[in-house]
User: Which sequence fits this backbone?
């Protein structure tokens, strides 16, 4: 028995240590997961309207937002006419004054999105919180939304893809665009481009709830001038720019 | 005209089987292209993220427009009481269906996910003009089938004019819908005009008439039937008139852009500075597609010769395809005005640039396959059913 008892002690100790290690390593993940699940289990409601304010005067000659988007969503960094680009840097010049502006261009998540209007199957849709997405299960790849978008925000997947991210499923023959990192937003995080812009020190992108009058983005929009691209089309984009 | 007798197409000739084989081969090539595109993706085509609709759409829209226009022959008979065209009504209805099926097949096979056709048939978004077009196209096929049945079934003869009138109205709405696919695109300057709907109606009449003339004349070539030259002359006069109408609408289209300072870029691009699109516009669309055929058709001596009418019809078909190329490809190549008033210095996604496009053989083959399918359906139907009128002698034709 003593032998057995002696054998049992290390086993008990092992279980004790294992429980300790588990509680240190797994528990936070479980807790985080629970937090994330709690966030995402909240129904998406129109009480929130996610938006972006981009201050082009702070947008330096960097492409941290583009790189972050590619890494976060499993996009290729290659640049050609058939590769998807969810966000791109564009350099503009005022012809009269010569002023040069650099800005990131992405889906403007319009409140009146023409891509949603023209989609024959309803694959292009707008969530209650304003994020415009493509349901990859019912997109037939007609590309009418690409014809309708005045911002060239959408890309068509021209060839089979590998190494996709589980949170950003993509498929050959369907159309896609910036999701505003909906998987992160639903988990209470910032979109990858906004995080990267902040980490780069430029802090040109401000993300938040446009319906919350006390949110920093709503406050800034209330007190500072901003521009909607192609405002003449009255699509009411949730992405606005300053300094152009 | 009740004495009109209809024949099947003589199918014992080498010529018939050679044509059948040619069309079947083209259809096979088109299906093979579609399979390649489905397998490898659209990377093998010339289409990209900037020119998202390419050659397949040009063929498809040509066939869809021609399908609507080709029914005009039957409509003129039933709506305007022109009995001279009544013997041709069956052929008119048959071609309307076959051309539409050919055009729609191209569109479906060009989809990124053609396997999801069932999704397009079960999920409808009624704010989309595409959805309305799906219903209009399917409805058109159903209505013209009934129309054909009423025409060919003696018991249903009393109802045939009513079916003809419904088909006439339906096809006007259908072509309005096809034009509106582009007309509702506010993002792209060359498209965002309601004028595209009447322009497409006029184009459908031109394309439909030219295709009808070509097929009618081909169906008599080498057969036992003889052409009634008076009918052909009347049809070619209509063709010329429709061609002038379409040209007029093209002029009005550009005048509306020229009137507004901020839209003059469209006029400059297509008429003067658009490189290949400007060349295609003047030489192909206007020169080959309108001026040359009009000269041939209105020439007092040449315009009476069947061979010249055939040549003019071919010019109109080729010019029409070029016209759609200029509008559809050129319209996408024209840079989007995303950053109004700003000059784009650099962009990784082609902002502010005129986009390049080189159609691939796969696209051409898919388009040609759709044309072949349309003709194959028409050919087989003409072989199986009594579609073609026997030669109508001059004495039997009432004068107007």
Assistant:
């Amino acid at each position: 028995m003593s032998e057995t008892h002696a054998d049992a002690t290390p086993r008990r100790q092992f279980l004790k240590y294992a429980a300790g290690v588990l509680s240190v390593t797994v528990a936070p993940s479980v807790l985080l997961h629970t937090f994330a699940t709690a966030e995402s289990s909240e129904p998406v409601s129109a009480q929130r309207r996610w938006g972006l304010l981009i201050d082009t005067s702070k947008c330096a000659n960097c492409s941290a937002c583009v790189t972050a988007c590619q890494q976060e969503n499993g996009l290729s960094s290659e640049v050609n006419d058939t590769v998807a680009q969810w966000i791109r840097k564009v350099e503009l010049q005022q012809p009269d004054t010569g002023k040069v502006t650099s800005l990131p261009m992405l889906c403007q998540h319009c409140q009146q999105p023409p891509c949603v209007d023209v989609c024959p199957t309803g694959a292009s849709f707008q969530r209650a919180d304003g994020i415009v997405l493509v349901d990859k299960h019912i997109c037939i790849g007609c590309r009418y939304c690409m014809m309708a978008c005045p911002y060239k925000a959408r890309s068509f997947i021209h060839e089979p893809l590998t190494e996709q991210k589980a949170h950003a499923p993509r498929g050959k023959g369907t159309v896609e665009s910036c999701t505003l990192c909906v998987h992160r937003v639903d988990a209470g995080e910032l979109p990858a481009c906004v995080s990267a812009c902040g980490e780069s020190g430029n802090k040109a992108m401000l993300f938040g709830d446009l319906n919350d009058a006390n949110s920093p983005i709503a406050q800034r929009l209330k007190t500072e001038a901003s521009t909607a691209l192609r405002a003449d089309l009255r699509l009411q984009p949730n992405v606005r720019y300053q300094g152009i | 005209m009740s004495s009109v007798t209809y024949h099947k197409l003589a199918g014992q000739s080498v010529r018939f089987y050679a044509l059948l084989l040619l069309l079947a081969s083209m259809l096979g090539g088109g299906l093979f292209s579609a399979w390649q595109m489905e397998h490898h993706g659209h990377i093998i085509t010339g289409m990209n993220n900037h020119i998202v609709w390419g050659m397949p759409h040009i063929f498809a829209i040509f066939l869809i427009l021609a399908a609507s226009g080709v029914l005009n022959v039957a409509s003129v008979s039933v709506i305007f009481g022109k009995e001279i065209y009544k013997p041709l009504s069956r052929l008119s209805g048959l071609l309307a269906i076959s051309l539409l099926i050919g055009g729609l097949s191209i569109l479906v096979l060009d989809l990124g996910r053609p396997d999801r056709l069932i999704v397009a048939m079960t999920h409808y978004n009624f704010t989309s003009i595409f959805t309305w077009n799906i219903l209009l196209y399917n409805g058109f096929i159903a209505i013209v089938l009934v129309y054909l049945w009423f025409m060919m079934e003696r018991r249903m003869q009393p109802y045939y004019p009513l079916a003809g009138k419904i088909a006439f109205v339906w096809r006007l709405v259908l072509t309005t819908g096809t034009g509106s696919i582009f007309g509702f695109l506010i993002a792209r300057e060359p498209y965002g005009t309601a004028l595209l709907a009447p322009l497409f109606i006029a184009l459908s009449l031109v394309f439909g008439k030219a295709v009808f003339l070509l097929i009618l004349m081909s169906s008599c070539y080498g057969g036992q039937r003889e052409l009634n030259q008076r009918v052909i002359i009347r049809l070619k006069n209509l063709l010329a008139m429709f061609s002038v109408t379409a040209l007029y609408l093209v002029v009005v289209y550009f005048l509306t852009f020229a009137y507004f300072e901020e839209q003059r870029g469209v006029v400059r691009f297509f008429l003067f500075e658009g490189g290949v699109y400007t060349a295609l516009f003047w030489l192909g669309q206007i020169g080959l597609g309108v001026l040359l055929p009009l000269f041939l058709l209105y020439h007092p001596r040449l315009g009476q010769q069947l061979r010249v009418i055939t040549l003019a019809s071919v010019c109109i078909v080729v010019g029409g395809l070029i016209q759609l190329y200029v509008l559809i490809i050129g319209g996408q190549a024209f840079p989007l005005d995303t950053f109004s008033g700003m000059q784009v210095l650099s962009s990784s996604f082609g902002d502010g640039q005129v986009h390049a496009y080189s159609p691939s053989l796969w696209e051409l083959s898919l388009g040609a396959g759709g044309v072949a399918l349309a003709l194959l359906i028409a050919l087989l139907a003409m072989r199986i059913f009594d579609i073609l009128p026997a030669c109508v002698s001059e004495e039997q034709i009432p004068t107007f």
